[in-house]
Amino acid sequence: MVRLHLPDVALVAGVAAVMAGNAALTGAGPLGYALLAVSALVLYAHRLAPRTVLLLTGACALAYALVESPEVIASLPALITMFSVVKNGHNPLALMVTFVLECGMIAALILDGQPLVTAVKTATLMGGWYIASAVMGVVFRQTEERALEAERTREEAALRRAGEERLRIARELHDSLTHSISIIKVQTGVAIHLARKRGEEVPPALLAIREAGGEAMRELRATLDVLREPSGNSLERLPDLVERARAAGQPATLTIGGEPRKLSDEVEQAAYRIVQEALTNVSRHAGGAPATVVVDYGPRDLVVRVEDEGPGPTHDEPGVGLIGMRERVTALGGRLVAGPGASGGFAVRADLPVGGEA
Fold it and tell me: What is the sign, positive or negative, of the torsion defined by CA atoms of 160, 166, 170, 173?
């Protein structure tokens, strides 16, 4: 069912009524009424196809001036469409149509018996209306451009403030936690070294403290990396992410299928975070078992798979990391599957639409 745009319907009805009333006063014939009717009806599409509508309404106005009488009111649909044409940036077409109508009006006035000077004055008056309509279109377009620029400026300022806040949080965490955890880890290591040097049995509590300190340092470093990174994460940085996991003792391989291309920031960020969280889970819950990362660029979606060769999950309760991954994928209109792998271990698969729209 086609829905009519009521403001444009009202515009067409009003313009048709004004032109019909003027035609009745000037005694227009059937052909004149037909030209006015066509000109008014095509005006309805002035938003969708302004250039085509301007050509049609201009032709009807010119034909009416030559067939009936050179009335400015018959050019009303062309005047309105001129605004839409210029607003959309088609200035050369507007200039050409104005010139043709000016020349046509002068010719029609001369054929109607008007002196050349009078014909030029009347045509100049009509040209002034066209120029006014074009100026309104230019002003409207500039206003829209300024509004869009202001919106972009606000977004950029918000992103800059968010980045500054992330860096501030990262510095605060670094200053307040890293130093203390490092001291605890160093002192624990010294105590373990001295105990072993004296041939004493190392207390299990010291070993547990050293292990917890190392884990805390890794978690804190990962958190700081997240805070320091910009919000838009490119998939081009995935090899660096996998390389960092290898350097930390996590065996991992990366395979990229399909034809790599630039995707939306939302999709790339979600894919990057999914791989990052999945590798963290492998290191934490699978004892550093070998992991495989596969990123496949499809024509309609991006498939991300992370599989490990560990013992598999020890409980059915999903962790915070999996919940976060599922929320990211769902927000983009994708699908996430996480569970035991086909050959053991644990597998995460995310299908992300390449458009990144919810």
Answer: positive
